[in-house]
Amino acid sequence: MTMLAGIKNFMGINDAHKHDLRRRLNLVTVAETHIVWKTRLGHHVYGTIREPLDSAPLGQDSLCQLGSWIRGSVLAPFCDPEVHRELSEAHEHFHQCGDHIIAKLKAGDRKDAATMFENEYNHSLRRIIQALTIINKQLQDV
Question: For the chain: N or C, fewer Cβ within 10 A?
Answer without folding.
Answer: N
